[in-house]
Structure formats: C-alpha cells, structure tokens
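Dear Dr. V.,

Thank you for agreeing to look over these. As mentioned in my earlier message, I'm a first-year student in the group and I'm still getting used to reading structure tokens, so any feedback on how I've presented them would be very welcome. I ran two proteins. I've put each sequence directly above its structure. The first is here:
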Amino acid sequence: MVNVRRASAGWWALMLLGLALALRAASLAAYAFDGLYGQDPYAYYDYAVGPLTQALLRWQPFPPFFWPPGYPLLVALAGLIAGRAPAVAQSVALLCGAAVPPLTYLLARALWPLLWPAAGGRRWGQAGPLLAGLATALHPQLWQSSVVVMADAPALAAATLGAWALARYAPAARGHWLLLASGAVAVAVLTRWAYALLALPVTGVALALLLARWRVRRRAALAHALGAALVAGVLLAPLAAPLLTPPAAGQARAFAGDLEVYTWNPANVLRRSFVTADGAQTYRLPNGLYYGLLPLHPYYFTPLLAVFLLPALARLWRAPRSALALGLLGGWPLVILGFHAGAPWQNFRFGLAALPPLAVLVALGAAVAWRWRPGRGWRALVAALILGGLAWQAWGGWALTRWFAERKAGDLALVAAVEAHTPPGARLLTFQVTPTFAHYSRLETHELWALTTADLAALLAGPPPAYLLLDVANAQSQWAGRAPAVNYAYLRDGPGLDRLATYGSYQLFAVRCAACP
C-alpha cells in the first residue's frame, strides 16, 4: 500500500511538473521573450557568461558580484554544456520554476497528516496537496519569474526542496533527509539572501527534531547534526572569504550588495514614504498593510483563493502542536513577509519567497471550508471559489508574462528608434535602459548613474558626438540630488542639450560639443 501511494504521489508530481512546463512554454511561444529586461537580468547574465565562466575554466575563485553567485553558477555550468545564450539562462530559471509546484505538492503531502485528521476522510488527503500544487503551478508571479533571467525561481525551488526534505526527516529521522534539507536551504541562501530568513525557522525545526532524536539515540542525533552543519558549511564556503575580506575603497563587499543597502525598522510597517538607494518613493499603502494583503493580489492567489487562508490559520492554531507544521507553515511566511514589512521597499516579487507554505495553507483552508456544511449549495460555492481562483490565476500568469514580453519589445523598439536618430559610433548617455542598449544597439553606451560630472567632461572633450536619452521627469523627482538628476542638470546648463525626439516618457537630446563634427 505504501509503495502504491508513493507511486501515485510520483505521478501527480510529474503531472504538475509537466503542466507548469507546458504553460510557460506556451506563453513563450505566443510572445517571443528571451528573459532579459530592465537591469538585474542583464547583470546576472553578463556575470555568468563573462567573469564567472572564465573563473570556472581557470579554476579560480568566484569573482566579486553584487548578489550571491548561486544562480549565475547554474547558468555558467549550463552554458559550458549548451552554449552561452540568453535562452540557456532562461531555461535554468524555467526548469527551476516548474519544479516548485511538484515540490510544494510533496511538501503538502508530508505535512497533511499533521493538519488533517484521519477522520476527515481520504478524499482531501489526496485533493488537498494537489490543490496546493495547482495553486503554485498557476501562480502568476512564479509563472513570470520562471521565464526571466533572475534568481527568484531557482532560489525558491531549492528552498522548497529543503522544506520537503525536512518534513520527510521528521517521522523516521533518517539522516540523508536532514542532509538534503541542509544542503538545499544552503543553496537557496547561496542564490538569494532572502532565504537566510528561512534558515531561521528551518534550523529551529531541525533542532527540535534532533532534540527528540537525542533522547532516543544520542549518537545518531549527533551524527545527523554534524553532517547537516558540514553540508551547509561546504556549500556556503564560497561566500565566507568574500564576506570576511574588507572591500576596496569605494567598492561594495562581494556578494553582499543587497545586505549593504538594506535597512530594517519595525516602524516601517506603518510608513509608506522612503528614501533609499533607489531614490525617493511614496507608496499607496503602508508597508505592513501592503505585505499583509499581498496574498489577495490578482497576481498572487486572487481574493477567491486567499479567502481560504483564514480557516487554515484557525485550523493551524487549533491543531496538535507540531514544531514541523508551525515552523514551516507559520514561521516561513512570517519571517519573509515580516522582514519585508519592516524594510523600506515595496516589491510584489518579494512575496514569492513565501509562496509554498501559503499554498499549503490555502489547500488546508479549502478542506476546512468544504466540511463546514454538508449541503450541496455550500460545497458548490467552495468549489466555485477554488475553480474560479485557479482560472483567475491562469489568466494572471498569462497576462503578466505577456506584459513583460511586450515591455521587452518596447525596449527593443526604443533602441531602433534612437539608432535611427544617431550616427554610427555615437556615444549614448542613458539611465535605466542602459543594459538594453549595451546588448542590442551599435551605440557606445554609458550609464549615467556611474558617471560624475568630471567623467562627463572627459567624455565630451572630443569626438564622437554624444547623445542623452533620459526620462527627465523621473530623474528630477525620484533621483533628485543623485547622479541621474545631477548629471542631467550639468549637461543642460553646461554644454547644452538640443531635444531631438520624445519616446513615451523618454527624451532624446543631442549634447552640444564644440570639439564634435
């Protein structure tokens, strides 16, 4: 019987993997998109196929980078096999993102006996974990994160694998599961620093399980603990030396750029205006309310599925106390959303790190709501909320991916339009769209953020001619007093600017230069 159940679980997991892959592949087939957009994906890709690949080929330490090197390492290794191309980097994210739904399903199966009484029937014992997997497979933000060249999906896949392995370790205390849990969470941290927060509840749960094991078999418990610590230490070793080595003057510490710009203050829960490394920002909602309401967003669970979180939390509170269930389903989303509520940023993407436990809670809440009343009308309502929420998610995933593809198409159209107004070999000074022009245009591109007025004077001292492409209103508001606004004012009031064209919010200027032809 156990083997039959395991085989059934394996088939369902494969079906969820296939569904996630098929949906993402279909959206990419409908809307051509290579996974590069904005700024961060270009940075990941350039580091992976450039300095990191060269270091691997020469057996050298990882070169410094702003973020942890886990995802670029996967891209570099894949590139050594399949070639260096954005499609290879995108495929790494795609496969990792598609792995999250089956891993969430397996995590729900492992936790379900702690949450759902045997007297509740076997139907929800099968349907509950499957619903958690489906809500993850159709999740719009995970869908979109699976098709971009970013670290979000790989880090989440590693974290979910670690949580499932820890749940498997709990009943039988077999050491290989704890080693897998420790290694997977370490890989998640190596990929995105946010998952160092997850390490807190995971470590707490592991210690509770080891303590229970210690009371029965001390030698085995000690061996498991030392093995888990060794695995995590080996995997995180590449971060140790760069973090402990003082950076050069004016340089950020390697792999810790995020840590050096982040601040945390519980008072930020009530605030909605901040000045950060990203300039001045005023949001519509206070931070605490924004992250507290995040699961209701149409690109998260939608209100139809998120409503099931309320009965799930009530069940979790009333269920027999389990360090495993409370740590993974309560502690995991609490540390992720709680941290971001106290940080000075609002970014919908940040909530993705809490998806698997919240998906399990949605499934648990649906099971609780189903049994509240036995009548057909009530159960038809619950079924309508479930099916409607899943359909809404599917629409959101398709729409969000299409929006990013259209955004990329707009960026490429901007490149073509600017090239039509500038001579070959010209210099372009720009901000925010710099990576796009550096990758897809024939212009010598310079990032306005990285230049001082002295740098600008040197660039303009001779040919070739220079042009400025800038969202002036954004530079003067969000970036007041920072390099984009300061450099714009210098070019406008010093050499002088002649406006040539306007493309949406961007304006193209020719920079006056006496030495230029």
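The second protein is here, in the same arrangement:
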Amino acid sequence: MLNDTLHRVTERIIERSAETRADYLAQVEAARRQGPHRSELSCGNLAHGFAAHDAKGKKALAGGERPNIAIVSAYNDMLSAHQPLGDYPPLLKAAAWKAGGFAQFAGGVPAMCDGVTQGQPGMDLSLFSRDVIAMATAVALSHNMFDSALCLGVCDKIVPGLVIGALAFGHLPVIFVPAGPMTSGMTNAAKAQARQLYAQGKIGREELLQAESKSYHSPGTCTFYGTANSNQLLMEFMGLQLPGTSFVNPHTRLRGALTRAAAERAVAISGLSDDYMPMARVFDEKALVNGIVGLLASGGSTNHTIHLVAMGAAAGIQINWDDMSDLSDVTPLVARVYPNGQADVNHFEAAGGIPFMIRELLAAGLLHEDVHTIAGEGLSNYTQEAVLGDPDENGLDTVRWQPGRDASMDVDVLRPAASAFAPTGGLRLMQGNLGRAMTKTSAVDPSRHVIEAPVRVFNSQHAVVDAFKAGELDRDVIVVVLYQGPRANGMPELHKLLPPLGVLQDRGFRVALVTDGRMSGASGKVPSAIQVCPEALTGGPLAKLRDGDIVTLDATRGVLEAHVDSETLAAREPALVCDSSHEIGMGRELFAAMRRIATNPEAGGNALPIDRSVVRNGVTADV
C-alpha cells in the first residue's frame, strides 16, 4: 500500500500545479504532430538540414520512415565525467541506423566543473550555467528536425539544465545517457584528511595535490556521492535513463552496450513508433515525487532542493521545501555513501545499487509504481540490473536486463528499508526568525544536530578562511556568511569552508554554518543551514545579525532562530555590505541580468522565468 504521506504530498502537488501543468501540457500538445517533425520544413529548410550528409543520409532524412534522433552533448575533455562522451556520437549514430532510425549531432552545451572552479571567481557562474545549458539545449532542438533526443551529460548543473531545456520540447521522447563513475582511487576519508592537514599548514601544496590526484585520477565522475552522482540516481528514479545505467564505469564493454541500447530505445519510442513515449508523459508529478524520495533515501545532494524545483517548474509542476521535508520525515535513509559514509559509488553499485533501492522502497509503499518510463510502463522496470548479453550478428556487445539483487551485498553501504541507517531522509527544512533554509543531516553526528552558539558574521568565504588562519574562530561559534545568494553573486558553492570548520569541530568546539549560499553534495560532518531565504541582498534578516548574537540551529525540530527580539532585529541595518567585486571579471559581467531576475533558492534560483499563460487557447492537452 502507498504510504499516506507520499500520497498526500503527491495529491497536494497535483492540486497546486493544476493550472500551470495544464498550460504546459497544452503547449506540448500544440507542438505534437503525427509523422516526422521535419515534414513541416520547407524544401529549402530541409536541404540545409541534411546538406552535409552522404546520399544515404539525405535519402533517409528526406523520407518519412526513419525517425531522426537528436544528440545533445555536454562533452569536453577537461571535465573527467564528460570526457568519455566524445566517443558516443559515432556509436549512437550506428546504433540508431541499425535500429531503423537516423541520428544527428544537434548541438553541444557548456559543462563547467565545480571541482575546478571551487573557491575561484568562475564559481559565481555555476548556478546560472544551468539556465545557459537549458537555453543551449533548446537552441539545439529548435531546428525541428527531430523525432526523439538523446541528452548526454552527467555533472552538477548540466543534467538539470538538459532536463529543463528538453522539457521545452516535451512532445519529443528524450533519453539521458551518462558516462559512469571513475574507478575507485584514494579513499574519500583520506582525501578529506589531507585537506584538513593542508588547512592547518601541516602539509604543503605538493602533498595536497598528490592526494587530490590519487582521488580524481581517470575519466568518469568523482566517486563520492555529490550532485553529479545524485543526478544519475534521479534520472533512473524518474524513468529518464535506461535501468542500471548510472554507475557502470567508462570504457567498459557494458558501458558501450548501454550506450548503443539508448539509441535503439530512442528509435523504438519515437513519434513514428507504436510505443511513443514523450518526455512530458514521463516527467509528471509522480515521477518528480519518486525523484525526491530517491534523493532522500540515498542522502543525496542539497543542490537538488534547488534543481528539482526548477525542473518541476519547467514542466508546470510546483514543488517546495515543505514537500521535501514532509517526504523526508517518512523516507528511510538506506544508503551510506561518502560524505554520508566511507564507501564510494562503486561500492554502492556492487552492494546492489539503484535496483535494490527501488525494490525496497516500492515494497515499503514509498514510490509510485504506476508511472511511465522510457523503459516501459511501471517503475518496477528499474528493479532490473543491466548485464552483457550475447554479441549481435556484427560481434558487438548487447545488453540484457535481469532481476537485481534481493539482498544487500554490504549492509554497511546499503540496507533494506526495514533496517535502514536512519528512519528519516537526509534533508530537513529549517525555519524561524532568520528565514527558511535546508540542512543535510545524514553525514552529521546526531550529537551535533543541535548547535547554539554566538555568531561571527562574514561577507565572503575567503574572509572566513582568513579568520580561521588568524586563530579568531577557536571557540564555539556559528559562522554566518552573507551575500552568497543568487541575486548577490550567483550563489557559488562554499566548499572552501569545509576543511577549516572541520578542523574546529575536531578540536572539540561546537561549530555550525549558516548562509544564504550553497554547499551541495559534498555537505559533510559540519552542521549547516544553507540556502537561507530570503537572501541577505533582498532584505533577509540574516543580514541583520551582529557578531556575538546567539543563534540556535536545531535540526531535530527544524528550527533556525536568532535570540534577538523581533523589534530589535527589524530596526537594525545590515551588518555588512555586499562585496561588489564579483560583478566583473571571469565573464561575470555577462550574467548581470540573470542576477537581477533570479528567484530565491526555494523557487529554484531560476533566471529563466516561464509564463505559459499565453497557451491558454483551448488546446486539449492529451499526452
């Protein structure tokens, strides 16, 4: 039976979203047509669309029998997770042709790496890169040459951006195609220890670089469970990737077979087939709730408390942090993957991975089974694991699916729902007289779920590091970092704070972080109230805190409260001013307009406001 809270939250999302979802579906219906989409193009348009192809390709695209599959890729060879995608287009094109279709590389989207830009000026572009990716995806698909799409991407803002952009073409079937994680290197615990030693000046840059290079050592995603790997899990929980695709290492036989299978499936579910499965049908309210549950049960990235809201809005679905918090109250934490434990995603996969998780959560009534997916009807398709099948007539590896494990292979990494690591999910809504915020509790020791201490207020993460080095924070302290929201500086992640705050905590001090900025999937052992709304720049009360004010961060009750009476707090002027140096340099001047219009984090930090009211023209939505 379906869990009562899951049912109640889903129903209120459906009710809240009724008008905006109807507007979106009407837009999708207006774009849908029978037959190849390119048949709407004039002869001159179409000739431009296949001019570069050989005679066989021109004939295929001029006719109406073969569906044309768009390839939209985030490939670059600087980003380890996306470097393997460079080999994909020829594989996808050959597989699509063999399956009775055609494939064209429709366009590329940018893919920046937060690991490279962390603590650097370029990080100020990170959140808004999601919206740029969405727009680039739309540009790639705007030629109207296509009957399905394959979106190639893995990391932080890239997958949410591809989802948002593809949802603007919700009449097309869309399949997401990842590259997989790198093999395991230095343990995440050893890497974290090296960072803390460096923060204390006990090792130098050369030793730190050696440690980092042993951790990030080959093609593929970073192996800790951050936003990139949370993306992959979400795509399976929401039925947008082939089952068992997420955590297969790059350049393996199974990885190649899965890549070809994605192209074959894109042909099979195109608008020219009997199994037409448009993205708008897959990405609905139930799928989105399934994604939230998957995030919570796995202790996933706090970034998705922003991205899932933005993705939902792109499909006319309105979710908020109350929905996530209520679901967290009934979702057991069944996985421990770093930073929520010591294992990495390769260990998680070996223990049973996503198929085991989905089977357990379905049995507990915590997922919607009755959903559409790109793999077929029902989420139970995703309790299957992918294995190599017999070679085809050309000697190429194929993939087949078999039931996933019915027991965890390592209960220190993955557990049944009935004996979970914790009875609730890893995220909690915080609220009080400082606003609303999110906290990630899954990696924090329960003895530190409640912190009450004097604050020290800063307006940049660099100022915090300087104060740490000067010995000014060697005490119980709640560090408050202002002006880190979307409108202030684009909301960069604040990972430079993790090593020094971790050192203070290890010294025995009661330490916490409160900020209107982000921490993301690497949020670790230091209790943090992040993404505080409203942000300081827009009048949020966080800006009125003074050094020495007592603040309570209580993750057990969901309380974020300053011990300052309301009249005093309201009468104060902001404690510090916003540092304007972020407005120029490293391309940041190009994003000024996005900073001005960005929504708050609970509304998705969205710089792409969407108004679909213009489609209320009587079109019947039936997808």
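From my reading of the second output: The first strand starts at residue 68 and ends at 73. The chain has two domains: 4-183+218-417, 427-583. Does that match how you would interpret it?

Kind regards,
E.
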